[in-house]
Amino acid sequence: MKPTMRWYRDEDDYWRIRAFLRDVFLLNGRRERSWHVARLDYWRWHLIATCECCPPVPEVTLLWETAAGDIAAVLHPVYAGEVFLHMNPAFRTQALEEEVLAVAEERFAADTSDGRRYLVVNRDRDDELRLAVLTERGYRKWGEPVHHWSRDLDAAIPAVPVAAGYTIRSMGDVDEHPARSWASWRAFHPDDPDEAYEGWEWYSNIQAGPLYRRDLDVVAATEAGEIAAFCTIWYDDVTRSGVCVLVGTAAEHQRRGLGKAVIWEGLRRMQRLGGTRAFANGYDAAANALYGAALGTLELSDSWVKTW
Q1: pLDDT tens-digit map of 218-236
Q2: Is 267 left (phi over 0), alpha (psi -120 to 50) or beta?
Q3: From CA 34, how far away is CA 85, in angstroms rounded?
């Protein structure tokens, strides 16, 4: 029998999806062919809770289950008009892929400015099954590729000299949230007016994520206590793998090697915990230069869009 679709029901489903993503990660040879469990938590505790990228998890998540109760697929939006399909390779078929995508088009497409509808779907470059389905349904490749960086932690992580005046350490307690939030603002919004800054309370959502550990929330701080750079690693000890998100350096502290220093310190700490592989996604030239230097192994995925 083919898997049956249903809506997310309750909190137990969230933890079942987390276990499903762990299984899928291992079945896919420890590659991110679907989200790492850390990205699901980040979506819920940051992108939804802070950025309000889409409605809460129960309102936007669909599951496909086998007669035996195994999850075969999960579908949800990431942002308005953009969805992610998580597929268990043990149950994945072209028919299931087509069904999940048809449901995504029906339920999660967004409106264009001229009153049409559109949907964006991700495809790994070597995923021939999805390519066939997307092409048949009228999708086209769109935008720049996402760079998926990884590094196996089977060798010592080199030491990085730290620029004078900076200390690499763990994130502090709640009293340091304002400084950490300001560093993030200066890293990702250097050209925006300071009046647009919306405060630091969002960082409590980051720390509420199930995989958050303060010892893997590494910062570079000045002697005055200003946070200059940061690397937060969400580590999953079930799969012994982690994701670097967020990583950044405040604009006034860039070009001092701090980004690479906090990443590598985080990787060393993760390695001591038994971690064996780390991931990060790059969406622009600066991020890809940093992750390329710090992690080194690259795979690409593309966005595909359909408009009707």
Answers
A1: 999 999 999 999 999 999 9
A2: alpha
A3: 7
d(CA 53, CA 225): 32
Name the token pair of 253: 């502290």
CA 250, 255, 258, 261 torsion: positive or negative?
positive
Mean pLDDT of the 81-109 span? 98
**pLDDT at 184 exceeding the cut of 90:** yes
pLDDT at 1 over 90: no
45-69 pLDDT, tens digit per residue, is: 999 999 999 999 999 999 999 999 9
In the structure, what pLDDT confidence band is assigned to residue 254 with cuts at 50, 70 and 90? very high
The alpha carbon torsion through 204, 205, 206, 208 (nearest 10 deg) reads 90
Total length of the chain: 308
Amino acid, res. 149: W
Cβ atoms < 10 Å from Cβ of 272: 10
Amino acid at 196: A
Tokens, residue 170: 């763990």
